[in-house]
TrEMBL record:
Family stated for the protein in its record: Belongs to the peptidase M16 family.
GO biological process, one term: proteolysis
Protein name (database record): Insulinase family protein
Record has Hydrolase as a keyword: yes
Species name: Flagellimonas olearia
Gene3D superfamilies: Metalloenzyme, LuxS/M16 peptidase-like
UniProt key word Hydrolase: yes
Cofactor(s) needed for function: Zn(2+)
PANTHER family: NARDILYSIN, PROTEIN YHJJ
Domain named Peptidase M16 N-terminal: residues: 49-186
Domain Peptidase M16 C-terminal, chain residue ranges per copy: 209-390, 689-870
Transmembrane segments: none
Keywords assigned: Hydrolase, Metal-binding, Metalloprotease, Protease, Zinc
One of the record's GO molecular function terms: metalloendopeptidase activity
Length: 938
């Protein structure tokens, strides 16, 4: 933007005359030495860091110590409204200039340009834009305009009111409403209880413009703001941009004091119950408030203290999980943690999910576990396992430090600005952990829990379904439960043997019988083992010591008898909760202490397999687990009963949840009520899911290793991998049988269909889903790219039409999926919530916009911007091993290598708007349209 370059030149002389250099920081900050931090004369802080993940991209953030807590009563909700308006016109980017400029460079609203408002802060971001100088200049100017140069035009304010109301409508679910009910207890009737960010809709829809202008002038100012910029650029040059542009911002002459609000302490226990007809589960939370460490004391010892806290929480939560695996567990989930609550308060909180038929016992059993740990202490063996896991976590984080994203770095710097939290490099943290964690004593961690669990300055909250037959405990009953837990007698747990091995005996290795280049990959290798199993290896340099892994086979649930499918849908959670080999889940967790890995089965309708990944040093352990999943899987009846009880309770209440009813209706329509696609229901789990059937399904679908292809992506070499696959995959007995999926004809109705239904909804709204589906779609890379372009253009058109022009919805979600299973098919879906009064009209506009794009085609600008989005996403994805793994899976299943340039970059580069417009109508002309609308009942 030439006008902005001119401004930079004019400003230079002014800024140099007012002492350009940054001030020294008034408060000591523990920061990674690669971060450039300073404070401008106007009080604005800046953090600048070079990071080349992703390469040639940069991200910009404006962080403000300004949130809903600063609103006066007549402004309740306006901090959030202002955040919305910040994208709708500024001094240097009038109208939609900001959005249009960023969209030309591959940004997408809601993704790579976004913002959020909280009670104490508001944060704006522009993520991963190109690093050419003009774009970098303009992005700093955007920070400048966000800071203090928004136009806030009357017409924009009026247009945004309904958008905010639709956001409120979309987020107003059971959890939101129950939290509103108990917020005064959580926040002890403080101002935090009166500021929920989304605000009072009566105020939002009717406030005079002066109210939001006053809020903006009072609080959007440089001495309450920080600019954070992370990316692949020269730090000195970026700092000069920041000083040149942002130093011109001024604070108001008679500025208001930015008060730090608090939640007052109180003696004893505050208690609250919140119920909702749409609640899907019953939960409790018991929280004790504590003074937070002051910002000027967040030093080296503070970090070490956080490490000790992490050890305590790890051990406490491990005890909860162990109890859940035992017979007769009276709760279905429990977790404890020590967290930041507000700026000057921390909390220790313990909570969980309860069974409706035994609420009080569930609460007591959780609190007994906490008191047992507090009074009798943890064991040395528990502490050693926790230390191993914690140190391994720091080591793993350091190993992948080159792949930490701009966003992740920015979050660390944001916490430094808002709360003076340390943000050190992963290497510094690893060194500190290695120096301090091994010497942490049992007395230190046991003492920590005693400081937290005070049973004073506390609140106890219950949230759950609204049912006549469900009786919630009274405050007196809760206090009695707490007293019983405190006064019980506890003895220290016995030490556990730490010398447990994963494998009882070593496998007899097989052999590699074939080794060749994997077609389409210069450095990829395809192996065939002596048992017939295929192995693919594709090395990448995307992440140091990182390995992504999967095993894939065709067939899945499509090869099962219909009466086995209900059981099959519960196979994965049962296997994961049963343990592995001779070890139950609790023992397995101890065996895997200090390992950075994940491996779990995956059973889909057309495929089965395993997926996971690991740090390179744990690759052998991952393959040992894979060996056991084939040769000695574990099915624990006790684990099945625990899982079933928990899931039954959830499904019973889920039937009253509008979103669940809506999703079920979509599934039934899109499968034409096929018995081979049963819904997850309370009745099916209770009466038709069988423990023995699940074991039979597992043996059937995972019984032949020779029908699997094993894929490794990342920091792997043939020298390292070959002996491991011979030993742990080649040793598994297989046969020569090969399977494919079966096409049972499961598909939507043959003709376009509408399904409108009414359902009890607490907050009236229309929930709308429109999908264009074709099972004659000509699947190939070029067509898939055209569908992605179409989706991107339609997404922007609907955003502008439905949200910005009509104010009819918070946003429409558009997705496109295409597959070769069981036959080539494509689905383009559109989803949105809206005011019931506008439902029919918005559906008409969706149809109009889509048909207009199909009939009249995209413009040159729309097409160019969509291509830019695809190019940007592709470049970012190619740096992710997870993307490579997914594409290799598709290659194995459909024979098309979409990682190859000829199947993506070459096609995209040659594509033109004329070619796209000529072709897109043909891709969708055979698609049928299916529409699901849920309306409020009554």
């Amino acid at each position: 933007m030439n006008s902005l370059k001119t401004k930079i030149t004019l400003i230079m002389g002014v800024v140099l005359a007012v002492q350009l250099c940054a001030q020294s920081t008034p408060q000591q900050k523990l920061l990674d030495s690669t971060i450039r931090h300073g404070i401008l004369e106007n009080g604005m802080e800046y953090y600048i860091k070079k990071n080349d993940m992703p390469k040639e991209r940069a991200s910009f953030y404006l962080v403000q110590k300004v949130g809903a807590i600063l609103e006066e009563d007549h402004q309740n909700g306006l901090a959030h409204v202002l955040e919305h308006l910040a994208f709708n016109g500024s001094e240097n980017f009038p109208g939609k200039g900001m959005q249009k400029f960023l969209e030309r460079h591959g940004a997408e609203f809601g993704k790579s340009m976004n913002a959020y408002t909280a009670q104490d802060e508001t944060v704006y971001n522009i993520t991963d834009v190109p690093v050419n100088p003009a774009v970098l200049d303009s992005c700093v100017w955007i920070l400048h305009d966000w800071s203090g140069n928004l136009l806030l035009l009357p017409e924009e304010i009026e247009a945004e009111r309904n958008v905010i109301q639709e956001e409120w409508r979309a987020k107003n679910n059971a959890q939101f409403r129950m939290e509103e009910t108990v917020s005064h207890i959580r926040h002890n009737n403080s101002k935090y209880a009166k500021r929920n960010v989304i605000g009072d809709m009566d105020i939002v829809l009717n406030f005079p413009h002066t109210s939001i202008l006053d809020f903006y002038k009072d609080w959007y100012r440089p001495n309450l703001q920080a600019a954070i910029i992370v990316g692949d650029f020269d730090v000195d040059e970026m700092e000069q941009r920041v000083r040149t542009i942002l130093s011109t911002l001024k604070n108001p002459k008679d500025e208001k004091e930015r008060e730090v609000y608090t939640v007052q302490d109180h003696k004893g226990l505050m208690y609250g119950v919140a119920t909702d007809s749409e609640a899907s589960f019953l939960s409790f939370e018991y929280t004790m408030k504590h003074d937070a460490v002051s910002n000027n004391k967040k030093d080296r010892e503070y970090i070490i203290g956080n490490m000790k806290s992490a050890l305590v929480m790890q051990m406490m939560n491990r005890r909860f999980k162990e109890r859940l695996m035992l017979p007769g567990a009276s709760f279905t989930q429990a977790r404890a943690g020590y967290y930041s609550f507000i700026q000057n308060k921390d909390i220790f909180t313990v909570g969980g999910l309860l069974k409706e038929d035994n609420i009080q016992k569930g609460i007591k059993d959780v609190l007994v576990l906490v008191e047992e740990a507090k009074q009798a202490g943890f064991t040395q063996s528990e502490l050693e396992v926790a230390k191993t896991n914690l140190l391994r976590g720091y080591e793993y984080r350091h190993n992948i430090s080159e792949n930490i994203s701009n966003d992740d770095h920015a979050k660390g710097m944001q916490s430094s600005y808002l709360y003076n939290e340390p943000y050190l490099s992963t290497g510094q943290l690893l060194l500190l952990a290695e120096e301090s964690v091994p010497s942490v004593t049992l007395d230190e961690v046991n003492g920590q829990l005693s400081k937290w669990v005070t049973h004073n300055n506390a609140f106890f909250l219950l949230k759950g379904p609204e049912k006549k037959e469900l009786v919630y405990p009274t405050k007196d009953e809760i206090q009695h439960i707490i007293e019983e837990a405190v006064t019980a007698t506890y003895t220290k747990k016995e030490e556990q043997d730490g010398n447990i091995t994963l494998l009882a005996k070593e496998p007899v290795k097989g052999k590699i019988v074939s080794k060749k280049i994997l077609e389409g990959f210069e450095n990829g290798i395809a192996y065939t083992l002596s048992n017939g199993a295929e192995v693919w290896m594709v090395p990448t340099d995307n992440a140091k010591d990182d390995v992504h892994y999967l095993a894939i086979s065709k067939g899945g649930m499509s090869r099962l008898d219909t009466d086995k499918i209900s059981s099959a849908k519960h196979l994965v959670p049962l296997v994961l909760q049963s343990g592995l080999g001779v070890h139950d889940q609790n023992q397995l967790t101890k065996v895997l202490a200090g390992k950075a890995l994940k491996l779990e089965p995956d059973l889909g309708y057309y495929t089965e397999g395993y997926s996971g990944g690991c740090d390179l040093k744990d690759l052998e352990t991952l393959l040992q687990m894979q060996y056991l999943y084939f040769t000695n899987p574990r099915f624990d009846l006790q684990a099945f009963e625990v899982y079933r009880d928990k899931t039954l309770s959830f499904l019973e209440n889920q039937a009253k949840n509008p979103r669940s009813a809506f999703n079920d209706t979509i599934q039934q329509l899109m499968t034409d009520h096929s018995p081979r696609r049963p819904l997850n229901s309370h009745e099916l789990l209770k009466n038709r899911v069988d423990f023995e059937d699940i074991q039979e399904v597992y043996k059937e679908r995972y019984g032949n290793v020779s029908d699997f292809t094993f894929v490794f992506v990342g920091s792997v070499t043939d020298t390292l991998l070959e002996p491991l696959i011979e030993k742990y995959i080649g040793s598994i007995t297989g046969n020569s049988a090969r399977e494919n999926w079966v096409d049972h004809g499961v598909s939507p109705p043959k003709k376009s269909t509408k399904k409108h239904f009414a359902f009890p909804i607490s907050i009236p709204k229309h929930t709308n889903y429109v999908v264009h589906y074709s099972d004659t779609y000509p699947y190939d890379p070029g067509n898939n790219i055209d569908m992605e372009i179409f989706k991107t253009i339609l997404d922007r058109r609907l955003f502008h039409k439905l949200r910005e022009e009509e104010g009819g919805t918070y946003g429409a979600r558009i997705g496109v999926n295409y597959s070769t299973r069981p036959r080539p098919n494509m689905a383009l879906s559109i989803f949105f919530d809206c005011n019931p009064e506008k439902g029919a009209e918005l559906l008409r506009l969706v149809s109009h916009e889509m048909n207009d794009l199909l009939r009249n085609g995209a413009t040159e600008d729309e097409f160019a911007q969509a291509k830019e989005v695809l190019i940007k996403n592709r470049q970012e994805n190619l740096k992710k091993n997870a993307y490579w793994l997914h594409m290799l899976k598709e290659y194995q299943l459909n024979g098309i290598n979409e990682l190859a340039g000829k199947n993506y970059e070459d096609i995209l580069r040659k594509n033109t708007v004329v070619m796209f417009n000529r072709k897109i109508g043909k891709l969708l002309e055979q698609a049928e349209e299916y529409e699901v609308v849920m309306k409020p009942k009554g």
